[in-house]
Amino acid sequence: MNPKPASALSTETLPEDAAGGPALAAWHAGWATAVGLTALGDAWLGQGSQALDVPAALTMAAPGLLGLILLGRDGAGVRAALLTAWSLAAIAASGLTGGLTGPLGGFVFMPLAAAIALGSRRLAPFGALGAALAALAGLTAAALNGAPEASPGMAATSGLLTAGAAALALRLSAARQTRRLAAAGAEAAQVETVLAGQPGLTLVLDASGAALAAYGAAPAALPVDPLFEDGLIAAVHAPDRPAVQAALAKARTGVEAQVRFAPRLALDRRILLVLRRLGVDDPPRLIALALDATLQHAREEGLEAARAEAEAQNAGKSRFLANMSHELRTPLNAVLGFSDIMRQRLFGPVPDRYADYAQSIHEAGGHLLDLINDVLDVSRIEAARYDLSLERFDMREVVSAALALVRVQADDKGVDLAAVLPPEPLTVAADRRALKQITLNLLSNAVKFTPTGGSVTVRAEALGADLELTVADTGVGVAPEDLARLGRPFEQAGGAAQRAQGTGLGLSLVRSLAELHHGSMSIDSTLGEGTAVTVRLPVVVARAPIEGEAEVIRLNRSA
Predict the structure, then answer these.
(1) Is the CA virtual torsion 365, 368, 374, 380 positive or negative?
(2) Which of 226, 277, 320, 346 is 20 to 30 Å from 431 at the Cα level?
(3) Which residues are CB-neighbours of 437 under 8 A, at least 6 positions away?
């Protein structure tokens, strides 16, 4: 069932009572019969005051005959047409007999009686207008033709007929009103039944939050009776009252408001309150829906606790990696140093076999040191302990330095290296070490996954206030399903052989360092054709660098 709004229950807006159509038709038929018999009797007995009394009386009987149409058809238009017919008949009869001073003076008021019988308050003014016009027509006729001859018997009869018709019309109207009120009451009872059967509690509140009416099942933690006695605010736990009062104020302005609070009598429960303004009354009234939100609140609290625990564990992991990486680098530096002394024979000759061992130890140690440095940088960034030292420098110098570091690797592998740099200085304000790390990681990755005969190109240019650094290669490329994962720690693409060439930290570190500079990293790749990684940073400055200018900024995670 879809209950109608409260305004639809008003008797002012209910449709015409179709069930009263037969009774109204009987009223019309009775009038036509009574007037017709009176006119015929008057003519037979010769009591007519003038020759026009009988035609005038029969004219007044005509609307009664027309009223029989209500047996087959009813509606506002039909009733308005009938009232028009009553008015025209009264005007005609009044003009023929002299109106109020004539023998049919009582018939002047029949348009008003008909309006009452037809049962619409909107028709009553038109009925009164019809009666007034009929009286005016009689006065006009009397002024033009002289006063009509007196006919007390006919005048009394017309008055009695009109009075009887008016009395019956009032009874019809009262019966119709009774039926309307009964229908409205039944519909209101149905609406209240629906409201009472809903799972939540519906409240009608005044502007201050006091309950005026309540329907439905009240949550166990929110008894209804105190809401009528003390108001809604008194039932709310004190710390939650400002939020509830703010929601009430918002709803009073016509905007829907929602608020969740702990009831004063059950602090372990939660109530969700949805508020709206009811109508345009002044002072305003509110309608509120109160639902038990305890389970939802418990789920949200559990999720929040799990999130906080996960964040704490992740932060602990990052701190552990940062500390462990620092502890590992110290002995590893000694291993690298002594192996380098041995492979270069700085303290004298060593057998070739031991020299090869020293070379292998040095290469493995260097690879391990790179891995530890990457882990250290990533963990420091995640732990919000990475400091950017911002200074102004020429980005071309950073690109050239990174190219020099990877050129030997590229030459050994047979990969062509190329750089596209602007002829004028490309001045940026950034962390020099971080940008060198970004460039070096991108170039090392590109050379590592580009086969012999391929090429790697690095391009740096200014696009407005942004530095765009792009490293493109003609290597193995990345499958579309792997692109979304790249850039996260320890995520790699390709097969096992390809993944064995790296740790999955290079691109992750590039993305993190770019985000620390409020920039971004994007990857465009086609499997079997190559990859282009673009880093865009808002670090370009227009003026020349100021020597010695530097700034150290500690960035937190929100940056």
Answers:
(1) negative
(2) 320
(3) 377, 509, 510, 513
Lowest mean pLDDT, pick from 27-31, 90-94, 220-224: 220-224
pLDDT score, position 322 = 65
To 10 degrees, what angle do helices 76-97 and 110-118 make?
170
Rounded to an integer, what distance in angstroms lies between the CA atom of residue 551 and that of residue 388?
8
> How big is the chain, counted in residues?
559
Out of 412-416, 463-467, 474-478, 529-533, which region has the weakest mean confidence (pLDDT)?
Answer: 474-478
Amino acid at 292: D
Residue-wise DSSP of 93-153: HHHHHTGGGSTTGGGGGHHHHHHHHHT-TTTHHHHHHHHHHHHHHHHHHHHHH-PPPP-HH
Place of tokens 């260097």: 366
**Which pLDDT value is given to residue 478?**
80
For residue 447, CA distances in Å to 20, 397, 509 come to 96, 20, 18
Number of C-beta neighbours around residue 218 at 10 A: 18
The 3-state DSSP class for residue 503 equals coil
Q: Are strands 455-463 and 416-420 parallel, antiparallel or unpaired?
A: parallel
Q: Tell whether the model's pLDDT for residue 507 goes beyond 70.
A: yes
Report the DSSP beta bridge partners of residue 455.
416
Tell me how far apart the alpha carbons of residues 17 and 118 are, in angstroms, rounded to a whole number. Answer: 10
Please report the pLDDT score of residue 556 as a whole number: 36
Maximum distance among all alpha carbons in the chain? 162
Amino acid at 122: R
